[in-house]
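Help! Submission page says 'invalid entity' but I think these are all valid:
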Amino acid sequence: MREISVLKTLLEKGQFAVTAECGPPKGADPEGLIKKAKFLKGKVDSLNVTDNQAATVHMSSMAACCILKSQGIDPVLQIVVRDRNRIALQSDILGASAMGIRNVLCLSGDHQVFGNQPQALGVFDLDSIQFIQVVKNMRDNGRIIGGDVLSAPPDLFIGAVANPFADPLQFREVRLAKKIAAGADFIQTQCIYNLKRFEQWMDMARKEGLTEKVYILGGITPLKSGRMARYMNSRVSGIEIPDDVIKRMEGVTEEKQKEEGIRICVETIQRLKEIDGVKGVHIMAIDWEEVVGEIVESAGLLPRPG
Amino acid sequence: MITAEQKPIDEIREMITPFKRILALGCGSCVAECAAGGEKETRALASTLRMAGRMKGVDRKIDEKTVDRQCVRDFIIPLGDIINNYDAVLSLGCGAGVQVVAEVFPEVPVIPALNTEFLGETRDQGYWLENCVGCGDCMLFYFGGLCPLARCPKQLLNGPCGGAVNGRCEVDPDIPCVWQTIIDRLTFFKTLDRLEKIYPPKDWSKKQGLGPRKIIREEQQR
């Protein structure tokens, strides 16, 4: 049976897509992953698997994707350029396609100083944009860097990330355009708390015609507490949480903060559905994957079509 | 220039332990500019080590000498006249200097007193900054005279990444995001469109293709 990307199929049909993120375990045990697959199945269309997120050693994203596939999930393989040179990256692309993985998300990766291996050599042989271009050339022209022809091209739906909240705002569009020109089919954004800024970024993308060329999925991360909101805002690079959101989280008692975080997520999804050019949402519930089903249901996105 | 810093004194003392007659050999070029291995620093290190030896009652002779360029054999060969007076050289040259001394005098142990750091500039007094990786294929023209390979921790050629906030680098907020600076400079020169093209993967064979690189220019050879 020929494998197909659920995500690609839905987006091409014009359906509002729901993806989520799943972190592999910090160990060799597949059980936790299988459990996550069981409760996320039917709640999301496709599931991203992070690649040694936060530059911290986890089970390989490729292996975790294969485990998820065996559970009937359509995985999105995240690959960072931090840990592999161009030989390993291209080889993993072929391996992923051979294993029936149909979605790949190409990104730079958190810098190694932020993780538990700060003494590691950061590879960064390709940057994320070059990597996207390489994957596209492998898929569409059956060629690797240097021009050698593949015995069979990989079949992959190519994703990239964008951070509408990083500086400088004007240049974010140039970078988005470059990712699309390089070959990105879909974009998953950094978590959105500042909707005003996100709308500004989407306006710019629409004006440049970029929303016609790529499927944009808005990123969502449920906040567990006011403390988490403050921490993420000040300590996690690339994330901006406006004061009113932090105050809203802190405005309820501690035991109600999780609920409030979920409510904010659901409201954000409602807003995102109204924005022209947003084709889906990507829910990154960090170490809290069990809440994804509730968010998707409350946002009126169940049942999933797949 | 090449920058360097002196190794911790305890590490140096440990390495010189077996030797009784040592020549502390400074270098008057790069490492003098970065105040790590010039005449002044060589004198100070030799004196510190002599004093430390005396305190422990060790009978050790440490002389000092500084050559103009320790990485050029012509400056090292003349030391052949005095080298027999010593059983080790404590080099305050960069890694290149240490190795030239070792190759010119294969029978003499050479001890590095410095950690060689990077290719960079003197930004201010007591402040040196890495800004070149010696990639063998300079791209500074395209990036407004700023090198993203040396100055972006992720070596992005199509930056900036998603982590820059308020123009600061996410990895070290003490430094400006070099991509922000590149964008500012290209905006000033009205050449920002240069960043709309996708810069292809770097050809690293020009840096490490055949191992240690060499430059051979016949017209310069005697």
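Support: the input was valid. A stray whitespace character was the problem, and the output above is from the cleaned input. The interface with chain B takes residues 82, 86, 108, 111, 113-114, 122, 124-130, 133-134, 145, 161-163, 166-168, 171, 174-175, 177-178, 181-182, 190, 237-238, 240 of chain A (CB under 8 Å).
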